[in-house]
Amino acid sequence: MNSLSSIEESAISINASKVISRLQDHGFQAYLVGGCIRDLLLRKTPKDFDIATDAHPEEVRELFRNSRIIGKRFRIVHVRFGREIIEVTTFRGPHADEYDENHSDSGMTLNDNVYGTFEEDVFRRDFTMNAIYYEPQEKEIIDLADGTADIESQIIRTIGDPTGRLREDPVRMLRAIRFQAKLEFGLESDLQSSIRSLGYLIQDVPPARLFEEVLKLFLSGYGTAAFDAMMENDIYGWLFPDSKRSMENNATEELVRLALTSTDQRIAKKMPVTPAFIYAAVLWYPFVDEKQRLEQEDGITYAAAHEAANNVISKQQLFTSIPKRFSGPMRDIWFLQSRLPSRFGQKPDRIMEHKRFRAAYDFLLLREQAGEKTEQLGEWWTEYQEATEERKLAMKQSTSNGRPRKRKRKPRRKASTSDHASLH
Ligand code: ATP
Ligand code: MG
Question: How far apart are the C-alpha atoms of 77 and 336, rounded to whole Å?
């Protein structure tokens, strides 16, 4: 049988099936829908299972002990089974008037809690491939938006006119790009040209929501492809304006791509990853430039690095938020870069005890790969970490190794009387 006309039932989450049965036993309609069906048709493992129902959030909440209602703009119910969360969404309907109080001036939906029928729910979904429903009892696929055909031709197509659908919710542009990268599908041509001309609407989206999307784009195992798709569709600059601007004079593009490639490789090997490392790369050259600017402005000050980090991070937060648990490590990675060149006495062993040393060392290697000249500093650290005590000692003594240059004292002038005298 053609894989695109059948769902491999054993791949469906048992918990999702339980939620559907229970909703149906109580007289509600319930279907699997969205990414899980799309991925099952593509014979990929779904990331999560989403359910659509005509039960209202409160009704769903009452049926499941381990459930809670989340979201404001868009209320949904999370039903928890250990580590698995099943998302249950009530059918949405169209808004009566797109210029009502539920929409911003640019047509963005501010409140999407108007419930609707099954048919209405189909047409408020973003892309045709995400609007395929599956009813597990009858094993029936319901595809009113012709998503299967688009999956077959590997096309991402909005349901309805792309301009209007992207205006309603500009995050759909980032979703399109994410699916383009993840599935290696193409964007339907109207969708692509709309994204290229409407990128600026991303500025209207709350930074916290954008941060969530950035995580999905960069930390799902296909970050490099997502970055390429963002660049290709003129979207990157609307999320990271300073980073985009710094590409003109710096190796930002190389550094970001290297950080994402390394992240993708780590995810493939099931190693831990953090957005702090990626953000450190995204904003490294804006940070370096800002630090330089402050140093030139105020003379060399110890505080320049801290102030530069604050400036660059708070500016970025106007676009995508960066929670403290990530901005902290990000600063550590940056500040350690200026400590890595000092390799005399106790310094190397001390810096190695820093909990962010490993990330900072990895970051140094990426800077070098991106073309920064550091006089083989990375190589030195690679060897030092593996070296015997004896070798370590020799390495520390071999060159000046970042020792502050002894200031040559100027011969002390005896008395300044002559200077003064000349004034009189
Ligand atoms: P993933 O594989 O990342 O989970 P997904 O398509 O399932 O992809 P979700 O964020 O889990 O993405 O959303 C589930 C479904 O909800 C989508 O498939 C789509 O039908 C609908 N949806 C999600 N976000 C939007 C949106 N911004 N606008 C319209 N429909 C959306
Ligand atoms: Mg999903």
Answer: 43
Q: What pLDDT does 410 receive?
A: 57
12 part of a folded domain: yes
Measured in angstroms, how far is the CA atom of residue 365 from the centroid of ligand 2? 36
The CATH number linked to 42 is 3.30.460.10
pLDDT digits (tens, 9 = 90+) for 266-292: 999 999 999 999 999 999 999 999 999
Decide: 35 in ligand 1 pocket, CB within 6 A. Answer: yes
Examine the residue annotation and report whether 234 is marked as an active-site residue of this protein: no
- Residue pair 218/263 in contact by the 8 Å Cβ criterion: yes
Instruction: Confirm or reject: Cβ of 293 under 6 Å from ligand 1.
Output: no
- The confidence score (pLDDT) of residue 119 equals 97
Residues 190 and 162 sit within 8 Å (Cβ to Cβ): yes
Structure tokens at 66: 């381990």
Residue 393 lies in a domain: no
Spans in the chain with pLDDT lower than 50: 1, 98-99, 414-424
Is residue 84 in a domain?
Answer: yes
Determine contact, residues 321/211, Cβ cutoff 8 Å. yes
* Domain, as residue range, for 90: 1-147
How is residue 168 annotated by DSSP?
H
Q: Render pLDDT for 349-358 as a digit per residue (tens, 0 to 9).
A: 999 999 999 9
Number of domains in the chain: 1
